[in-house]
Amino acid sequence: MPVRAARQLGELPYAHRLEPFDGDLRRDGTYDSVHFDGTELEDAEGGGSGFTECAFSAATVTRGRYRRTRFDDVWLEGVRIVGADLAESSWLDCEFAAGLLAGLQMHGAQMRRVVFHNCKFDSVNLRASALRDVSFVNCMLRDADFAGATLTGVSFPGSTLDGASLEKAKLAKVDLREAAGLRITSGVEALRGATISGLQLLELAPALAQVLGIGIDDR
User: Fold this and answer.
1) What letters, b where the CB count within 10 A reaches 16 and e where it falls short, cover 190-199?
2) CA-to-CA distance for 53 and 30, rounded, in angstroms?
3) What is the spatial distance between Cα 98 and Cα 208, in angstroms, rounded to a whole number?
4) Fewer CB in a 10 Å sphere around the end CB: N or C, the chain?
5) DSSP-derived pairing of the beta strands 140-142 and 160-165
6) Residue 151 in 3-state DSSP?
7) What percent of the chain has pLDDT over 90?
């Protein structure tokens, strides 16, 4: 399925309704049509909050607690999220471009129809998460932990997975053929639900042979 190109702020159907964020983030808050433009959130408590038709431009989120936060039709561009707790958060119809996600706790997260464009992931914990119809486009995913996760209809065009863990993950209709790099540190057997290219198969052959107990001796 073709992935929609990243949109600009003015292209959003709700752009004309956006109001600037003013005040402090609060737990269990409700935010509709709010623009977080250059907002800096540090050690904030936003757990259980809901964001609907909101936009985040060049915002910075450092640490903080956002468990069970809901994002519905949210656009993010140039956003840095570092060390935050987003466990069990839910993401529906979201678009994230040119962002940095580092050291995040996102275990148990639910994502559906989410697209990441040109984002960098570093040590993001996505254990036991559920991703459906999610695309990582031209992204770098370093040490991403998908252990125990369920990935359905997920694609990685132009993206590099460097040190991904798929231990006990369940994959269905996952397309890795256009990935720019594919290095899996554990759980290579979970690829039974994915489609890869012939070249990727050759690169993964040693790891697959190890899983199957096949010895390799070129002497």
Assistant:
1) bbeebebeee
2) 11
3) 34
4) C
5) parallel
6) strand
7) 87
The Cα 78–Cα 76 span in angstroms is 7
Quote the mean pLDDT of the chain: 95
The whole-angstrom separation of Cα 5 and Cα 82 is 25
Separation CA 136–CA 109 (nearest Å): 16
* Cα of 53 vs its chain's centroid, Å: 19
CA distance 219 to 5: 50
Question: Residue 1 has what pLDDT?
Answer: 57
Over 70: is that where the pLDDT of 65 sits?
A: yes
pLDDT at 113 over 90: yes
Separation of alpha carbons 137 and 159, rounded Å: 6
| Separation CA 24–CA 8 (nearest Å) | 26
Q: How far is CA 208 from the centre of its chain?
A: 26
**Residue 193 backbone phi and psi in degrees, to 5:** -105, 15
pLDDT given at position 210: 80
pLDDT of 98-112, one tens digit each?
999 999 999 999 999
| pTM across the whole model | 0.94
In contact, 206 and 186? CB cutoff 8 Å: no
Residue type for 38, please? G
Phi-psi bin for 145: left (phi > 0), alpha (psi -120 to 50), beta? beta
